Amino acid sequence: MTMHRRDFISASAATTLLAGLDISSAYGKEPANIDARKFLSRVVYKRPEVDGWLKGDQYIFARYNGELGWLLRNAHFDEGVDGSTCYYEYVGDGAHERRTIAYADKPCRINTYGDSFTMCHQVNDGETWQEVLGSHLLEPVRNFGVGAWSVYQAFLRMKIEEERVPSDLIILNIYDDDHYRNLDAWRNIRAGKDRRFLCPPCPHLKVNLETGKCEEMPNPCPTSDSVYNLCDLDWAVDRFKDDFVLNIMLAHANAKAGNPDRAYQAIMDLTKTHGINTRIDRGDTVSRSAQVLHAKAALLATTQIVKWTEEYAKQKGKQVLYVLSFNAGTVARKLSEGTRFDQSFVDYLKRENLPHVDLLAKHEEEYARFKGSVEQYLAQYYIGHYNPRGNFFTAMAIKPKLVEMLDPKPLPYRWDAPAKK
Fold this sequence. Notes:
alpha/beta, Rossmann fold, two-stranded antiparallel sheet, 11 strands, globular
């Protein structure tokens, strides 16, 4: 089946919270005091929608998985460069990795995990950055990316797949919105209801900002039958009324609706279970304060996942390379204003001397030599996600650090190997 699919996952939460939401049209003429019931009434499903998704007749982008939330399925979508159709094929029809082409018959020592910027939406199987690397290094690079996933979901899958097809070196690719996704018990709460992607709840982290502790939380809908709970507004309110992200979103919604007291209360409600202990004004600073808290919790969650990943790698005798990828808007702000929201996380990676490749810094280095505008620069690489040229840019940015870490070196970098005549 071929269809057009809206890019529902490319924009950073740091810039899109409640973007474009017309509060008056969404909640009626008097939207003040938007509570959990009013908010969730906009995102619950109807039973035919869940029926169609579980049967595979609708929302063909993904399929339900009780442990991880969702996995992918073989498909093709009209979303490629120059309006072309992109073809996606997965081993086991989504149960395992995206199809490996380059040197697929050779032993593999590199596995990659992450979201759509790992899976490489909007390019064909042979155009991913993994395939570029594999073709250059003369060895396969497996691709376990899944669109719309968090760092935490990628971490969980890493532990599963490393037992099935172990690697020597793990690449964990962290996209900018992935930090926020760590906290999402149900993505609809933050991103809204998408007509082409049924997003079930998923495993996530519960963060206490006062103690700095992160608690692993399982999928709230661990069976296919339980997905029908998403059609029950009473269930949704009872399950998510104390959810961190829901209260952040209620603060934004009420601030936008001109109800600062309710916005303030939404933030204060987080003191019960999330360690929020702060004083904020009831004026227009509530929404800004909510975003600061959201970003702090999101980055704390990723930092904890990196710690868990390092512990796992040490136990299994593996190396980990962290790759930071970004949407075009985040890159544009960095190139235009010199700002980034994740500086504290980058500082952590540097402080701990953890191998990483920061694609935002790589774009900044290249742009310094570019003669055109920011828009012209980004148009080379982005069509929502990276185009084939953007995937080549990613591969070449990763390659030096990857070659440095691999032992023995890939064949093209074994300088002591005698040349064959």
